């Protein structure tokens, strides 16, 4: 049974690969035997992390919104490995507020900048479309492959704005409309692509993770954890098993599905 989880001899590309979760996706795929293409806007960091993983892996700069660059990267991967077996569409724009004094104004729906909304659509939706179109077409020609679109619990439910209130009950900022709107779009795009390429042997699934603990304010971690069945936020490596499962033959009869790994956030 464990052999079905092996990715030996397969080539996997991860976008947004040097982020907190992206690095763990890469490590999991590499540990399962895949040759991993570490793709990120930060080419220097991508190359350094690929070297850390080992000589069979490749680091490359990639802007998922640049069609020509996505095609060039595809050619480079094929020139080195000759195939593409797994695509993890992990790159995403999750708005951050650098000036806390402006947080409420910048994240309130009534004043949220339309330019920021459009930027999120470009990265989170168009970027997934482009990478799936280019890298997935190679899989369709091969007659096999697995595409994993990383969404979010906020693609399933509306944000609970109360978890962003501090100990004094003050709203520190709001989760904006952009992230849930784009992640919800990804979940249905997965269904489209699974139906479209099913006969070509390409499986397409969504992974919807919950929030990862990463030095957030103590009040936020407490608020978030209280809303989960398991009573905690995720650790960065909590999604490694899910990624390997979706990438491998262990999920061979699974396509068009949304695997929710959120500590029970959406169960309550």
UniProtKB/TrEMBL annotation:
<protein>
    <submittedName>
        <fullName>Short-chain dehydrogenase</fullName>
    </submittedName>
</protein>
<dbReference type="Pfam" id="PF13561">
    <property type="entry name" value="adh_short_C2"/>
</dbReference>
<dbReference type="InterPro" id="IPR002347">
    <property type="entry name" value="SDR_fam"/>
</dbReference>
<keyword id="KW-0560">Oxidoreductase</keyword>
<dbReference type="InterPro" id="IPR036291">
    <property type="entry name" value="NAD(P)-bd_dom_sf"/>
</dbReference>
<dbReference type="GO" id="GO:0016616">
    <property type="term" value="F:oxidoreductase activity, acting on the CH-OH group of donors, NAD or NADP as acceptor"/>
</dbReference>
<comment type="similarity">
    <text>Belongs to the short-chain dehydrogenases/reductases (SDR) family.</text>
</comment>
<dbReference type="InterPro" id="IPR020904">
    <property type="entry name" value="Sc_DH/Rdtase_CS"/>
</dbReference>
